[in-house]
Amino acid sequence: MKPLKNWDNNTWLSSQKYINSFNQFILKQVKLNKNSRILDIGCGRGKILGNLSNKLRLSNKPIGLDIENHKDKSKKMIFKKIDALSFISKTKITFDLILIKQTIHLFKKKQVIKLLSLCKNKLNPNGKIIILSLDPNKNEIPTFSLMKKKLTISLNKDEKLFDLILKNQSKIIIKRYVYEVRILKTKYLQMIRNRYISTLLSISNKQIQNGIIEIKNDYGKFFKFKDRLICFIIKK
Question: What residues in the chain have per-residue pLDDT under 50?
Answer without folding.
Answer: 1
